[in-house]
Amino acid sequence: MEISSVEFRKIRETFRMSQSVFGQALGISAAQVNRIERDKRNLTDRVKRTLIDEFVLTPETLAETLAIHDRYKRPSCG
């Protein structure tokens, strides 16, 4: 299953987790989470597998998670 940097961020935001807490769940630093979200670092197979396992992601649950994010995301100010 492919997970883009944008989808990676949306998963974290849907679960209302800080980069620090999300990183702890995945076994990486908050700085690494930030770099993945900004597409400055690739999502490794190990981190992707941990993400899939920790959040019980299937193609269906990933699609549902992204739909929830898009439906309830607060509009940006400005």
From TrEMBL:
Under SUPFAM superfamilies, the record lists:
lambda repressor-like DNA-binding domains
Which ranges of the sequence are coiled-coil?
none
Gene Ontology molecular functions: DNA binding
Pfam families, per this entry? HTH_3 (PF01381)
Q: The HTH cro/C1-type domain covers which part of the protein?
A: 8-62
Signal sequence coordinates: none
**Tree of life domain:** Bacteria
Q: Which residues cross the membrane?
A: none
Q: State what protein this is by name.
A: HTH cro/C1-type domain-containing protein
Give the species this sequence originates from: Fictibacillus enclensis
